[in-house]
Design brief:
Elements: H1 2-22, E1 31-32, E2 37-39, E3 45-47, E4 55-61, H2 66-81, E5 85-91, H3 96-109, E6 119-123, H4 128-133, E7 141-145, E8 150-156, H5 164-173
Parallel strand pairs: 4-5, 5-6
Antiparallel strand pairs: 1-8, 2-3, 4-7, 7-8
């Protein structure tokens, strides 16, 4: 009998502990994107919050990352068609030369097209932006930042930037129709 009581208490305790897990929790409210200063590889400098009023894709990548290399041309093509979006592409390559070589090879993959004006590449060799500020350790990873500078989503892994669901998610950031 004692074993049955203990078993009942344990099972009852498990049921109580598991109840909150069964309820769908509301999404946390958007949080403010931490501001940081940057200098792009092309020399353009600024702060993240200087881009207030625009959708920002904070994209973390590296030249040695195969999924990053596969995704990069599509992200560039997408960015070229969406002037309302600014991409801050933060490379975590240890050597700037590796990122520059990677970027130099991109036009051939894109039919001769260079970098769109709204696509800035930032070198972050010490990972101060990637890891210290945004706790990003896997690549590629993209944080979606709304025009009010709140973080509204995170894409872990390569994204299909032409996908209808992705277009709808980005359109929702500015209350546009996709």
């Amino acid at each position: 009998m004692k074993k049955i009581v203990i078993l009942a208490l344990l099972l009852g305790g498990l049921a109580v502990v598991s109840l909150p897990l069964l309820d769908e929790q509301p999404a946390p409210p958007p949080s403010a994107a931490p501001d940081f200063a940057y200098t792009a590889i092309d020399g353009h400098g600024g702060r993240l919050h200087d881009l207030k009023g625009k959708i920002v894709l904070l994209h973390f990548w590296a030249s040695w990352c195969a999924p990053c290399a596969a995704e990069f041309p599509g992200l560039l093509d997408f960015t070229a068609t969406r002037r309302d979006i600014t991409v801050l592409a933060v490379t975590v390559d240890a050597e700037r030369a590796a990122a520059e070589k990677f970027l130099a090879d991109i036009p051939a993959k894109r039919g001769g097209n260079g970098m769109p004006a709204n696509f800035l590449v930032i070198h972050d060799p010490e990972k101060k932006i990637a890891q210290d500020i945004f706790q990003t350790f896997g690549y590629p990873e993209t944080i979606l930042i709304a025009p009010d500078m709140t973080m509204r989503g995170k894409i872990v892994g390569p994204a299909d930037w032409k996908d209808a669901a992705m277009q709808a998610k980005l359109a929702a950031l500015t209350h546009e129709r996709p």
